[in-house]
Every structure is written in C-alpha cells, then in structure tokens.
Amino acid sequence: MTAIPALAVEDLSVEFRTRSGVVKVLEHVGFSVDKGETVALVGESGSGKSVTAFAVMGILDAAGKVTSGRAMFGGSDLLALSERDLAEQRGRELSMIFQNPRTALNPIRRVGRQIADVLVRHGGATRNDAPQAAIAMLKKVRIPDPERRAEAYPFELSGGMCQRIMIAIALACRPALLIADEPTTGLDVTTQAVIMDLIGELAGESGMATIFITHDLALAAEYCDRIVVMHAGHIVEAAPGRALFDHARHPYSAKLLAATPGETVSLEALASIPGGLPDLRRPDLPPCRYSGRCERRTEACDQPLPQRIVGDHHVVACWNPL
Amino acid sequence: MSEPLSVSTPGPLLDIAELAKRFTVGGKQGLLARATSFRKPVAPLPQLYAVDEVSFTIARGETVGLVGESGCGKSTLVRLINRLLDPTSGSIRLAGTELADFKARAFAANPHRARIQMVFQDAGDSLNPRYTAADAIADPIRRLKKMPGAALAARVEALADMTGLPRELLSRFPHQLSGGQKARVGIARAIAVEPELLILDEPTAALDVSVQVVILQLLQQLKRELGMSYLFVSHDLNVVRLLCDRVLVMYLGKIVEQGPAAEVFADPRHPYTKALISAIPQADPAQRAGRLRLGGEPRSPIDPDPTVCRFYGRCPKGTPRCAEEMPILHPAGSARQVACHFAT
User: Fold this and answer.
1) Taking burial as the number of CB atoms within 10 A of a residue's CB, which of A239, A245, B84, B115 is the most buried?
2) How far apart, in whole angstroms, are the C-alpha atoms of residue B197 and residue A15?
3) Which residues 10-49 in chain A show a CB within 8 A of chain B?
4) Is the model more confident about A295 or about B70?
5) What is the DSSP string of A141-186?
6) 8 Å CB contact between B51 and B21
7) In this predicted structure, what is the pLDDT of residue B37?
8) Taken in order B329, B277, B213, B83, is the CA torsion positive or negative?
9) Strand bridging mode B89-94 / B14-24
10) φ and ψ at B155, to 5 degrees?
11) How many CB atoms sit inside 10 A of residue A185's CB?
C-alpha cells in the first residue's frame, strides 16, 4: 500500500497518578490512520479508547502523563508540541466530536454563533461573513430551516440536531483528522444512521482521516475501513472490519464478537466474557493483560507480547491466536 | 402475605384500550392572562398528544418489546401503565382490575402497586445512594408487604441468590458496586414483591456487551422461573429481537405496527418499521442492500391534524391520500397489525 498516513501513533504509554497508586492506562499503543481512511477503536469501558484520543488531542486530565511515544501528524509530533502550537492545530487541522453534544456545546450561546466562532478563530473568516458561512455549514449537515435554527440555543434542539451542530463545528475548518468519540451513543438508530452516513460522506469529500471510538462492533464494521480492538490499555488486534468478523484471531476479539447481539439467532447463543479487567495499578501486571481471563493461556504468554502479522493489514498481539 | 389480589382470569394479563395522554403546553397564555381576560374568549391551549388512543394486550408469560425513536411516547406509555401518571382517557386492565381509576399520586400505597414493577434504565441513578443493596431490595417489601425482620432478611438473601448477586455485596452502597452488580440490585428490588408484570426500560443500555449478555440471560431465566410478563422498552433492536415474543412499534403517540417479533423483523410492513430495521448496523455488506433512510423531521405532536398520517412528510411513500385520511391499525396477516394504507 502506498497510502500516506495522516496520523501515526507509535509506542504511546500513558499513566494516571491516583491516591491509590500509578495506573498504567495505556502501554505501547501504536496504530496509524491514512488519509481518507476511517479507523475504529473498539473495546469495553476502561480499555483506553478515549484516553488514546485525549492523549493525541492533548486534552488529557492533569493527573494523566504521557510516559513514552509519539503521535506524528503532518510532520510534527503532537505529543511534543507546546500548548500554544497545539491549540493552533486543534480546531483547524485536528477536530473532535464528543460523546454528549449537550454538555459539549455552550448552553448560553446561539448555535450559529458557536460555529461562526470556530470559523473566525481558525478558518480565516471575518466577523461579517462568518454567520453566512455558519448557515452554509448547517445546510451541509442537513439541518432543516438553517437560517432559523442558527438562532437557536442548544436546549431548543433535539439530541440528533445538537450532534449535527457538533459535527458542523468539528468540520467547519475542514480538518485533516477527525476524532469522533461515540458520536451516536444515546441517539435513535434512525438518527444514528443519518449521522454516520454524513460523517462518511464529508470524510470522503475532503480526504479527512477519521478515528471513530465506539463499543458497537457492528457499527464499526459497517462504517470503518479498519477496526482496532483494545483491552486494558493494549491493542490486541487490528484488522479490516470484515476480516475481524469472519475470523477474529485474538481470543478477546472473538469473545467480544460472541457477546454482541447481531446476526445471532437466540439469546442462549450469546456468551459473556469470563473475568474482568485486571487491576492496572498492580506493579506485576503480566505482559498479556488478557491472560488472566484467557482460555488459551500457555507458558509462552509470560513472554513480551508479539506483533504477529496474520493477513493483509491484520495484526494480532497474541502467542496463541485462533 | 395478604390475600391474593389477582384471581387467575382467562384472557390477557394486561389489556390496554384506547389509552391516551395529552399534555397541555403553555404557550403565551398563562393562568393569570386567562383569568383576567374578560372580554375576548380564550382559545383552548395547545395539546401535546403524547400517547394517542393506544390499544394492545400482554399475555401471561409473554415478553412484549416496545420500540420507537425518542419522543414517540414510549416513556409516557410506560409511566401510564406503571401508574406514575394519570391518563387523559382510556383503560388499563390488569387481569380484570381497572387500574386507570386509581390516582397516580396515591398508587404508591395501593396494594396493586406490587403487581406492576419496573427496572429502570440506569441502575446507578435509580438506586438511593444512601441505601445499601440490602436496603434497596428490602424497601419495596417493607412498604407493600408486611413481613417480620427475620423473614425479610431471609427474603433479601433469597432475592440476591436469584439474581446472582453475591450475598457479601448486600452491605455495600451503590458506588461500591459495578454496573452489572447495580443492574442485579435493580432487578432484585423490582421482583421482590412478586410482580405479575415487569416493565424494563432499557435495562442494559449503560452496560458493556459482555455484561449485557449476562443480564439478558438472567432476565430470561427469571421470567421462566417466576412466570412474569415483561414489557421491554429498548433502542437496541437486536436485543428486542432476541428477547421478545411480540413487538410494538410506536411513532408519534400511535402504534404503527405490531406482531410476532420474528415476523416483524423478517418482513416489516410499515415504512417506519422498515426504516427502523434498515438502520440497524450490519457488519455484512450483503445485508446492506436496499436500505431505507429517513429524511426530514418528525411532524409536531402538538394538536396533530387527525386526518393526516403521522408519518406523512418523512415517509418515502407519502401519497395525497396519506394527507387526507389517517390510516388506522388494521389486521395484516394472522397475528399482525399495521397502520398504513399500503400495507396488507
């Protein structure tokens, strides 16, 4: 493949200092997103999906610390940029859609102005022509009656419409990289489908790279080129969506698929994943953080994790893959 | 325990007939304005038709799914059946007893309260943070059944065993429990007073898939053991398909389609049901052909025109007839009903 990576995350490790010890939230996380490509980060709560996104965006909580790694984006390392340079990139080149649009939008500013603000700050628009450009953005995300809706406050709009406003803000300056953190959680399936189609279309138009964070495997498979499966701060498998569904190689990915109600015919056919996440504060965490829950565990699992290439764009971090 | 409230009658457990709830929406005419405007007659205030003459039944031991987008009236309907809200008109009969006559504000102390219980969406938010798990489970028994202390403690432990909650967690507070454990407390509390109908409002929406599976299987098992009926409200159509015998599809206060879950999912007849089912994410590209996407915004539920189909304007079919005559729910096949002029 000759695709150019828009973002290359290498060896990213993040720790959180808490009163009860240091939590190793991410360890040696590495993946890349090409121009125009959509990559899904999937996993259960606590797997490190959102922390990965926050680290790349430079918006980690003050207790969080990047202990190693790089995030190469447009020739510079995002993790090494000063706060000032990063603020310049965010909004223009880097954009993020948050999980809950109602809390992410400013509740006391009209939505049209919120879009205009971004255009003025990052998009080179003047205060005079920004309102018109904001209305054009609203049209683009298919908000009916955009002139009137631009004057609305977030509480006057439905959840699906607020999410479209968030998307309009995120895409206003045609970013090179979009991070969407569970953008459709809490929305109806019909609205979800429309929002996902919209992100896909806009990404296709401008060649934007997208990182899509979700816990819905079927959604990831439908809309993303590749799926990266995370477990307890490790990437356990990365594969094209279809390949993962047809033949998941990591035992955890397989269990996750078996627990997802989809094409399954009966409730009895679904299986839960035994055990829970390991305590990430433990100083003696095993190299494979899934080994405590794994049925395929052998002595080899005490060795540092391998990165095995098992197919086209298909990598698995397991000594005993399926 | 006191004498049984339900005599086992033939016919359905729950029989809802022409149940309606309309809310008055303020507009600019406040009470004062209405009281002081002597000269000109005041126009009636606008009415929001949240639930509009809905009829359906739930049989004993049946699981009925209720689906539809936010704002379609699912929650209002649930609150009416659960007697947390008084209906504008219509009847709610539970095994022959008319519940619509009881006032919602006094229903908490009504002996019939024990017969319908509810499992809420977010177990974390619906548990009292200052109650231990044991207190939370014992609370409805204390309020609705007279039970001496020792028997109560034994009952709470039995309920913990039934719902798979380890007994040693009974002394913990909600913040010391995981999401799955809180869900179990929410279920144990709801079944503590031996309800005949259990209403489940998105009981697994906040859980990870692996925990969701366990909770769904637990619900299935409890239904078999205790012979309850379920009304299951969910956004997740894949879960509805797996758990429910029958499914009701709601759109803007009306039921637009109902029937056996397997049939409705395999062959949806109403255009809205079709759109809903084609919006389910599919990993398999072969399943994505011929999908239906809804444009436009839903019609306003405030004083809707009784002659226009509620789905008109968003419906890909939308003919002039749909704007002149509201389709009524009519039989389509043996056990199915659809409210569309073009569905047979």
Assistant:
1) A239
2) 48
3) 44-45
4) A295
5) TT-SSHHHHTT--GGGS-HHHHHHHHHHHHHTT--SEEEEESTTTT
6) yes
7) 60
8) negative
9) antiparallel
10) -65, -40
11) 15
Report yes or no: B215 and B208 within 8 Å, Cβ to Cβ. no
CA distance A181 to B324: 44
pLDDT exceeds cutoff 80 at B291: no
What pLDDT shows up at residue A3? 63
Instruction: To the nearest 10°, report the CA torsion of B298, B304, B308, B309.
Output: 50
Angle in degrees, 0-180, between the axes of helices A111-122 and A159-171, rounded to the nearest 10: 10
In this model, does residue B6 exceed pLDDT 60?
Answer: no
pLDDT at B40 over 70: no
The answer for residues whose C-beta is within 8 angstroms of residue B114's C-beta and 6 or more apart is: B5, B140, B144, B145, B193, B194, B195
- State pLDDT tens for residues B45-77: 888 899 999 999 999 999 999 998 878 888 899
Extract the tokens encoding B109: 């102390």
Q: CA-CA distance, A153 to B250, in Å (whole number)?
A: 29
Which phi-psi region, left, alpha or beta, contains residue A19 (left: φ > 0; alpha: ψ -120 to 50)? Answer: alpha
Chain B partners of A201 at a C-beta cutoff of 8 Å?
A: none
B284–A263 CB contact, under 8 Å: yes
CA B215/CA B187 separation, integer angstroms: 9
Q: CA nearest B285 in A: which residue?
A: A222
Using the Cα atoms of residue B185, residue B191, residue B193 and residue B195 in order, give the sign of their dihedral.
positive
Which among B103, B76, B104, B81 is positioned nearest to B91, based on CA atoms?
B81
- Encoded amino acid at A252, one letter: Y
Tokens of A27: 């360890």
Which residue is associated with the tokens 């009966």? A266
Closest CA to B28 of B48, B40, B46, B41: B46
What is the DSSP code (8-state) at residue B237? H
Structure tokens at A236: 């356990």
Q: Side chain identity at A306, as an amino acid letter?
A: P
**CA–CA gap between residue A168 and residue A154 (Å, rounded):** 13
Strand (E) positions, chain B?
14-24, 47-58, 63-67, 89-94, 97-98, 116-119, 197-201, 229-233, 246-251, 254-260, 330-331, 337-338
DSSP-derived 3-state class of residue A60: coil
- B15-35 per-position pLDDT tens digit: 999 999 999 876 555 566 656
Shortest CB distance from B283 goes to which of A221, A255, A261? A221
**Six token digits for residue A306:** 């391998």
Distance CA A297, CA A321 (A): 10
CA–CA separation, B156 and A36 (whole Å): 56
DSSP A90: B
Contact (CB<8Å) A273/B210: yes
- Quick check: A15 and A24 in contact, CB under 8 A? yes
Structure tokens, B255: 């039921």
Q: Name which of B274, B265, B229 is nearest B247 in CA terms.
A: B265
Q: What is the pLDDT of residues A271-290, one digit of tens each?
A: 888 888 888 888 888 889 99
Say if CB A36 and CB A225 are below 8 A apart. Answer: no
Cα B15–chain centre separation: 14
A264–B235 C-beta distance less than 8 A: no
Distance between CA atoms of residues B280 and B124, nearest Å = 27
From the candidates A45, A256, A267, which should be mutated to test the interface with B, based on the most B CB atoms within 10 A?
A: A267
Q: Could you tell me if B89 and B18 are in contact, meaning their C-beta atoms sit under 8 angstroms apart?
A: yes
Strand order from edge to edge, sheet including A234-240: A94-97, A177-181, A209-214, A38-42, A226-231, A234-240, A314-316, A308-311
Q: In the sheet where B14-24 sits, what is the strand order?
A: B47-58, B14-24, B89-94, B97-98
Model pTM score: 0.86
